[in-house]
Structure formats: C-alpha cells, structure tokens
Amino acid sequence: MKSIIKKSWVSGVLLGLSLMTFGQTQEEVVFSAPGGFYETSFPLSLECLSDLHHVRYTNNGSRPTANSLLYSEPLVLDEHLYSKSNIYTILNCPEENFYLPDSVRHCIVIRAAVFDENDSCVSAVKTNSYYIRALGCDTHGLPAISLCADSLDLFDYEQGIMVPGIHFDSLYPGHTGNYYQKGREWERLANVEYCDIADNDGINQLCGLRTHGNRARRQPQKGLKIYAREEYGNKRFDYRFFEETTMNSFKHLLIKPFSSLYPFTGIQDYICSQMAIGIGLEAGYTRPVCLYINGEYWGIYFLQEKMDERYLEDHLGVDHDECNIISNWMEPECGNPQGFYDMMLWLESADLTIQENYDYLSGLVDIDNFIDYMVFETFVANLDWPANNNRCWQMEGGKWRWMFYDGDATFNNSGVDPFGNPTVLDVFGNATYTGDYFWPSSRRATLLFRRLLENQDFYDSFDQRIHELCQTVFLYEQTSPWYHHIRGLMYHEIDEQSYRWGNPSSRAYWTYACSLTDDFLKERVDSYLIEWGRFTTTVPEHQNAFRCYPNPAKDILVVETQGASLLTPTEYRITNLMGQNLLQGHINDTIQHIHIESLPAGIYIITLGTATQKLVVR
Prior knowledge:
By secondary structure, the protein is of the alpha+beta class.
C-alpha cells in the first residue's frame, strides 16, 4: 500500500471495522419489510430493541448521523421519500460529454441506524432499497443493483471518485480526472444491493467501490467495480448471479455501463462473452441489470466477473498469489512480468521455422489456447484490439494463456469508426500489423502471431481450427440464440436508458443497430473464410489463374499461368505476411522460373496480377 493514503479511504475502512463491532452488539435496526420490488406503496416501520434508544435515517444514500431524520412513525413509501439530492445534475465528466435529462427515475432508499440518548451510533447501518412499480419504478424484468455511498466520496472536488475534480486537466481531458485515479486509496465504502425481480433474492452488504475502464471512466455513465473485503463485513459476494454457471461466490465484480462502438447496441460484449466461454476461453459471465446510485436511476449496466487473479482462483483453482498477468503485451497486472518480457525479447529475432525454436516456444505458450484466442478475436472483428483489450496469464512456471474481455467494439468490420470516419477492418492485416501506430494494433502486439505463422505446424493447426469453429460454434444457428436472448432481455428497458443518457438515441435506432449485429452474425462465417483465404491462400475467384511449384520451394520457383485473364507481361510480387515486398518482377511466358535463393525459410504470399497464393519456402 502506498505510504500516503487518502483520508477518505482510511475513514472508510475504520468505519467498516466499527460497523462490524456494532454488528456484534445486541442493538440493531429492524425493518418491517426487506428491500425489493413491490407493486404499490406501503408503510415501512423501523424499530430498535431498546426503549432508551432511537432510530435515525436518511433517504439520499448517505449514512445516517446524529443530524439525520429522527424516525417517529411509519414511513409511507411514496414520492415524498425520493432523494432530493439530484446527483444526476452534477458534472461528472468533461463538459462536452455531459448529458443532462429533464428528470430521472427513482427507487426509495432508506439507510437507518440506532442511536443512544447521547446521539451516538450504537448499531450497524442497515440499508434497503424499494422499487415501487405503481410509482413508475419498473426495471422491465431486469434485476436491480442499488449502490449507496456518502455523496462526498462520490462527488467531492478532492475525494469524489466520480467527478473530474482536483485531478482534472483541461488540456488533457481524455485521461485526467479523479475518476482516472486507481488503487486502494481511491476505493470508497459503499453498500451494494442486488435484487432479482422474480423473488427479491440477492445480496445486501458493504463493499469497496472504484471506477473502472478507460473510456468508461470519462463518460457520464461510469464504469464501476466492487470489492468484497473482510474489513467491510463479508469476504465474498455469495450469490448465484449468473444462470449459466453454478458458481455462487465472487471476490470482485464489474458493473459495466451500456456501451459499445458502432453500431450502438450495448449487446456485443455479452454475445462475445458467451461465444468465448463456448469455445473454452477464459471469459467472464455477464448479465444486464438496472443500476441505481443513491436512489437515482443510472441506466442499463452489465454485472460481470472481473478478469483478474481472483477469477483464475475461482474458476481454475490457481493460487492468486502464484500467478502472473500481463495486459496489452507490456503492462503487469499481477505477479512478476519478467518472464513474459524475456519471451517477447527472444521473439524479436527468433526463427520459428526451426523446429527447435518452435518447440521451445511451445513450452512457454499454450499454443492451442492462443490459436483459439486469435481465431476468436479475428472472427468477431474486434476494432479495439490487439494493442488494447489483451490479457494473458500464467501460473508461476506454467504456460502463458490468453483470456477474453471487452467486446464492445466487435461485430462490425465495415461502417464508421468512433470519430465518424468510414472504415473497413482487415482483421488479419490488423493482427499482423508492423507499422508505427500504437492503436488499435502495433508491432509488439502482433509479434507473437507473426512469428508463429512462419511455422508450418502452427499454420496448419490455425487453419484447421478456423474451419472447425466455422462449422460448429461460429455458425449462425449457434450464435443467434445469444443475440435474441440479450435483445429480448433489454428491449423494454431501452427507452429508459435512452432517456437517461441519450445512448442509444432512440429505441428505433437501437432496433436498427441490433439488426446490423444480427446481419453480421448471419454472414460472418462466409466473410471470415474469404478473409482468411485472401490473406494466406488463393483467392477463390482466381484460384485457377496460375499455379506455382514446387510448393514448398527452395532456390527456384516455377510459375505457370493459366487462362487468358493474365496478360503478358504481368507483374508478380512476393511479400511476407506483413505485406512487405521482398521480390518483384514480370512474368513474360506461360512458364516462368523465379529465383528465390534470397528468401529465408517461411511463409510468403505471391501475387500475380489480381491473384494470390500462399508460398512456403524451405
């Protein structure tokens, strides 16, 4: 822990410890009804055990103090108990990104504690959130999460984690602000309630709250994460949140906002996660929820597993203290990164056509896992990858494996980029990029894949896995149910999300955007196989234009033209997989001999006119 720690965090921990102490006493607040979904308003009673004590409460999400409202008679749960804080009007992002609706939907939040005759708190603070449908508080079938925290911890200029605040620099608005601060010192004490709509079952406990993400931190609809800790009272979030798994205990969870790049559907990441899990990748479960903060509606979010060392511990039995995690090819997330750095340095000059080198790398990297990961990321056409949203891990001394997270920028390889510019993603060009940019791809981010493609065994395995997945889990018959499931879950809540944040602009636009995702899934297997063929083998429509032999070749390559589509003389080019020209000339006869002695062993592309073929040099 850093030597200088925010006072707010220290006070939060001390408060959490003190609440545990209070919780061990005989005094407590007794609510006449638990939090949850109710059809109509009703009176709520708050009682304490001793006649010498009294109850104080708040309805704005803050912890009750000696100055809070004194309970004297049952509270009728109607509009008069809505929070009047209007936190939705607080500027919580760069001004040009701020969105202000006319009003927001509310749930009713009651936080209460017992005080003695000296107005000292003598019990734990209890929190319950009530969703009254007759008052318009209806999540349309989605579970609800209610987060309550002291307003200063969220919105104060110096210590608030959800505002630009003291750390904001107007010259660099994209990556500055209190919400970009990280680490334990920027964790704030909060109460989290998760409530299933069917039976009001869920959790209600104290937790640590932080902001999360990159772009999601500076957006008005913030990315958040919650931590269960013993000092807050519960070491885990013990509940089965996700229907697809029997897991019912989690250490860390994300509360990720409705978000996606074009088309703006909010559903891409959910579908990607289900697909990734289906092919055996490490990927987190997720589900849509409605979030309320201090009683105010905050829109559609996705409750997700956090892809960190605790995920590995929960799913794979890996000791969280004995694993190494690297993000974006260079950033250490957990453990010791040196082994990964050494491997990448070795790859800079390694020749993987030499079997000994390939075998050595196979002892460091789980090749089958990496193949699945690369096939998956290219199939979903991730526009924000591989230089970003990339994470790999190893158990100390084990092989590196890759995990999937954040598919917001997927399922669209033609359209517009986030800045409105037309773009078409060449997924394999992106995955083998060697230029000078750092995003969305970079030389470092593509190094491992480029080197592996030089090896015939890897290429054959990669090609085989592409065809296996395109004939099974990538088929529209397999992906379509996930699309229709998540679209159905979110459909009736989209109007509220749109009104609260202006994203999406309307249900009509969202419906149209969803149809684009559906179209992509319908057509993707065919288009993906064409892209793969265009990258490494003969383009189907030109497959009879010419042939070259022997293939694999050494020293001399014979090129034989076929048909009248290639005029003489016709230019030929031999490039490596990064698209760099290595040999160039003209074909003057039906049969031409090309000297290739200068080419080291590896895989190349030979282009003749508009036709291409893969060339293997021994």
